[in-house]
Design goal:
Pfam families: Sulfate_transp. This is SulP family inorganic anion transporter. This protein is of the alpha/beta class and about 525 residues long. The protein has 2 domains: about 20-390, no CATH class; about 440-535, Transcription Regulator spoIIAA, CATH 3.30.750. Helices cover about 60% and strands about 10% of the residues. The strands form 4 sheets. It has a 4-stranded mixed beta sheet, covered by helices on one side. Helix 5 packs across helix 11 and helix 5 (about 100-115) runs antiparallel to helix 12 (about 305-320). It starts with a strand and ends with a helix.
C-alpha cells in the first residue's frame, strides 16, 4: 500500500484491504490516546471561552470527523484551540450573544475556504526551520509546566490554558508553586504509577498489545475508586466532567443554530471584523501546527497547506452552524497523535467518533477519569517535544540556528503561539539577512611585482541588501591597485549595486586604481519573489 499526502493511493486498493493493513494496528491505539488528551482540553477551552461546555466537545468531534476526512494531512488533529479563547470570549461580549458569534464563525469558515482556494497556504513554506523547532520545544515546556499542577492534584486554572498569565490571576510559575503547596497524595500516586506504566509497559512485548495510555486511564479509575473514603480520596474537581445525556432529546437539545435574523440587528462591521480575526488567527495557527507536525512525522510526509485551509474552513462552517467553537490544527493533540504511533488520518477521524460515543453512551464512566492520569500522558508528550537532545542538535547547527530557536522558545512561553513565533521569525530573518550581507562576493588578492590585483567575484544573487557591504569593501581598497569585478556567476544584480559599481569605476582613477568589469550587464531582469526568498 502506498500512502501519499492526500490519503490512500492506488486504484486497486479497496477499503477492506486498507483496514486489514498494518496502519490500522497503529492508528486505533493512537486514536484512543488522542481522544483521552482531547476530552478535557475541549471542555477546558469551552469553559475559558465563556461558551457552553458542549460547544467544546462538538468542535472536537467536528475537528476529528469533518476536518480529518477532508484534510490532506495524515497526522494533524483539529479541535478547539486555547489560542482562540480570548478572541471568542471578547467576541461573544461585543456581539451580544453566542448565536451572533456563531454567525461570525460561519463567515470565518467561508473566509478560510476562500484563503485555501486562492492558495494563501503557501505562506507556510517561508517559516524558518529553527523557529518551528523552537515552537515545538516551547509547547513541550508549556505542557510540562501546565500539567504539573494536575499531576499533583491541585489546579484552579482550566485544563487547556496555555498562556503564561492565567485567567485565575496567577501565572505558570505561581500556579506550580501554589499546587506544590497543596498536593493531593492520591493524585501523586496515580500520576506516578501512570508515568511508570507509560515508560515501561511498551517494553514488555507480550502485553504491549494493550495501549499504555488506555491502561493508564483504567488504572487511574481503579485507584481513584479504591482511594474513596480514605485520606487519598480525589475531589470531584480532580476528575473529568462532561455533560450527562439521559436520552435523545437531551442530546439534540445541546445543539444551537445561528440566528440569521440577527444579521439585520447586529453591527455588521463588528461581525465582519470578528469573522476576519477568527479566520486569520485560526489559519496562521493551523499552518504553524501543520509545519510542526510534518517535522515530527517519522515518515516525513509533506501536507498540502491550501487543502488544509479548505478543510479547516469547512470544519468551522459546520461548527458555526451546529453551535460549536472555532477550531484549528492543534499541536498538542497532533504531537500526542504522533508520539502514540499514528500513521494515517484514521486516528484523527476515530478520535472524533470516540468523543461522540463517550458523550452518548458512557458519560458517567468518563467522569471517573482522574486528571492526574491524563496529566501523565501529556507530561510524557511534553518531554518528547523538548528533550535535551534537541537543544544539543540545534547548538551544533550554529548560532544562526540556535539563537532564533531559543528566542522562539522564550517568546512563545511568555506570550502566546502567534506572538512568540512572530518574534522568532524576526530574529530568524535577521540572521538570514546577516548571512546574505556577508556573502555577496568572493574576494581574492594576487601580487605581480609591486602591483596588487584584487579580484572580486560577485555571488549568484546580489540584492540591494548587499549594497552597503560592497560599497564599504570598494572604498577600502588600496590605492594604485588593479581591481577586477567579475559578474560572470551572477544571475541578478540589483540596480543600486550596479550604480555603486559603475560610480566606483568612474571615480577610481583619482586613487590610481584601474577597474575592469567582467560580464556585468547594464541591467538584469528581476527574478521571481519565491526564488529570491529560497536563495536567501
Amino acid at each position: 500500500m502506498q500512502i501519499n499526502q492526500g490519503g490512500i493511493a492506488g486504484g486497486d486498493l479497496n477499503l477492506k484491504k486498507y483496514f486489514l493493513s498494518k496502519n490500522l494496528k497503529k492508528d486505533l491505539p493512537a486514536s484512543i490516546v488522542v481522544f483521552l488528551v482531547a476530552l478535557p482540553l475541549c471542555l477546558g477551552i469551552a469553559l475559558a471561552s465563556g461558551a457552553p461546555l458542549f460547544s467544546g466537545l462538538l468542535a472536537g468531534i467536528i475537528g476529528g470527523v469533518v476536518v480529518g476526512m477532508l484534510s490532506g494531512s495524515q497526522l494533524s488533529v483539529a479541535g478547539p484551540a486555547a489560542g482562540l479563547t480570548v478572541i471568542v470570549l471578547n467576541s461573544i461580549t461585543k456581539l451580544g450573544s453566542y448565536e451572533a458569534f456563531m454567525l461570525a464563525l460561519v463567515i470565518a469558515g467561508l473566509m478560510q475556504m476562500l484563503l485555501g482556494i486562492i492558495k494563501a497556504g503557501t505562506i507556510a513554506n517561508y517559516f524558518p526551520s529553527a523557529v518551528i523547532e523552537g515552537m515545538l520545544a516551547a509547547i513541550g515546556i508549556i505542557l510540562i509546566m501546565k500539567q504539573l499542577p494536575h499531576a499533583v492534584g491541585y489546579d484552579k486554572d482550566f485544563e487547556g490554558d496555555e498562556g503564561f498569565a492565567q485567567m485565575d490571576t496567577h501565572n505558570t510559575f505561581s500556579g506550580v508553586y501554589r499546587a506544590l503547596a497543596r498536593v493531593n497524595y492520591g493524585a501523586i500516586i496515580i500520576s506516578s504509577v501512570s508515568i511508570l506504566l507509560l515508560i515501561y509497559w511498551p517494553k514488555i512485548k507480550r502485553v504491549a498489545i494493550v495501549p499504555a495510555p488506555l491502561l493508564v486511564v483504567i488504572t487511574g479509575v481503579v485507584l481513584s475508586l479504591l482511594f474513596k473514603g480514605t485520606s487519598l480520596a480525589l475531589d470531584t474537581d480532580q476528575l473529568v466532567t462532561i455533560p450527562v445525556v439521559a436520552n435523545g432529546s437531551d442530546f439534540f437539545g445541546l445543539f444551537k443554530t445561528p440566528d440569521f435574523s440577527l444579521l439585520s440587528k447586529v453591527d455588521l462591521v463588528q461581525l465582519l471584523i470578528t469573522a476576519g480575526t477568527i479566520a486569520v488567527v485560526a489559519s496562521l495557527e493551523t499552518l504553524l501546527s501543520l509545519e510542526a507536525v510534518d517535522k515530527i512525522d517519522p515518515i516525513k510526509r509533506i501536507s498540502p497547506t491550501n487543502r488544509e485551509l479548505v478543510a479547516q474552513g469547512a470544519g468551522n462552517l459546520v461548527s458555526g452552524l451546529l453551535g460549536g467553537l472555532p477550531m484549528t490544527a492543534v499541536i498538542v493533540r497532533s504531537s500526542a497523535n504522533v508520539n502514540a504511533g499514528a500513521r494515517t488520518k484514521v486516528s484523527a477521524v476515530v478520535h472524533g467518533v470516540l468523543l461522540l460515543l463517550s458523550l452518548l453512551f458512557i458519560p458517567r464512566l468518563i467522569n471517573l477519569i482522574p486528571y492526574s492520569s491524563l496529566a501523565a500522558i501529556l507530561l510524557l508528550t511534553g518531554y518528547k517535544l523538548t528533550r535535551i537532545g534537541l537543544f544539543k542538535h540545534m547548538w551544533h547547527k550554529g548560532l544562526n540556528q540556535f539563537i532564533p530557536f531559543v528566542v522562539t522558545i522564550i517568546a512563545v512561553y511568555f506570550t502566546d503561539l502567534l506572538i512568540g513565533v512572530g518574534i522568532g521569525m524576526l530574529v530568524g530573518v535577521f540572521y538570514i539577512l546577516r548571512t546574505n550581507l556577508r556573502n555577496p562576493y568572493f574576494y581574492q588578492i594576487s601580487t605581480k611585482g609591486d602591483k596588487k590585483t584584487i579580484t572580486i567575484r560577485l555571488a549568484e544573487e546580489v540584492s540591494f541588501l548587499n549594497k552597503a557591504a560592497i560599497q564599504v569593501t570598494l572604498t577600502s581598497l588600496p590605492k594604485g591597485s588593479d581591481v577586477i569585478i567579475d559578474g560572470s556567476n551572477s544571475r541578478y544584480i540589483d540596480p543600486d549595486v550596479l550604480e555603486t559599481i559603475h560610480n566606483y569605476k568612474h571615480n577610481a582613477y583619482t586613487k590610481g586604481i584601474i577597474v575592469q568589469l567582467i560580464d556585468i550587464k547594464d541591467r538584469y531582469d528581476v527574478p521571481p519573489f519565491e526564488e529570491l526568498i529560497y536563495k536567501a
